[in-house]
User: What shape does this take?
Amino acid sequence: MQIVRTPSSSRAIARTLARPVGLVPTMGALHRGHLALVERAKRENATVVASLFVNPLQFGPNEDFERYPRSFDADAAVLEAGGVDLLYAPSLERMYPPGFAARVGLDVVTAQYEGAWRPGHFGGVATVVTKLLHAIEPTSLYLGQKDVQQVAVLRALLRDLDFATNVVVVPTVREPDGLALSSRNAYLSAQERAAAPSVFRALETVAALVRSGETDRARVLAAGEALLEAPLRWDYVAVVDPKTFVPLDPLRRPGIVIGAARAGSTRLLDNVPVAGADGIDPVLTPENPRRRNLTEKPASSRSMR
Ligand code: AMP
Assistant: This one.
């Protein structure tokens, strides 16, 4: 596995790679959730590139940027064992040199829920992903369902700014008790960890009620909210429109049940998509099938003319 450290060298090398190229962006502290993205990218591409960069732009001033878990050598070994061909791990100075002033922003989906709890977060994500896409020029970008609002933001970014890259969404990987894997789970105390699976249980209960045809928003959300175990507290639980993240009232399908709970200063995020009557999953299914035209054939199957 080759490791590159600067945007310019990364692009020069990326342009020599066999296509299609899959990009898996990460902030490190890797777990099986990240590996599911790598495995999917391996299956669907001739070359897999991973990036590892803890992006300060997406952390608020009182968030955990300084103490975010960093384990570069172990992460690089995991990625190499997973079959990653190229690791792009830029330094902070190369990504944001003195005078760096650009910001990428979106008018939709970024103001509510995670956007409201973490002002500036999605602008930071959109900015770094734009830089990663310019550095690697991948065929497909692999994202986890776990961060479902991020998926909506990045789908809008790539569509609206005409990036020639597909988004592929990989289902959330969970612990056996249902807790979604996250690098931040390491922050949980034993008591918080024991209560943590109640987040997913609550969201699943809400999703089951929506699937069964319940439309009374207040009653359904109250049923889910009540299932959260102490010492966790909700930041929010909602059933939202899959594209706009506007809350659905009355409830209907398709939708996404989203929730964020707080354990001290650690936030646990999760979601459960609810398919429409057509059975189409509103998160995992490509939003616009025409974009499949962007998919390139593996280099080996392309004819030489
Ligand atoms: P992060 O390193 O937290 O920025 O995450 C990098 C990518 O891995 C993002 O696309 C996340 O949505 C994805 N990811 C994180 N946790 C999981 C999980 N439990 N299952 C699937 N994907 C995940």
User: Anything to note?
Assistant: Residues 289-295, 298-305 have pLDDT under 50 and may be disordered. DSSP finds ten helices and nine strands in the chain. The first strand starts at residue 2 and ends at 4.
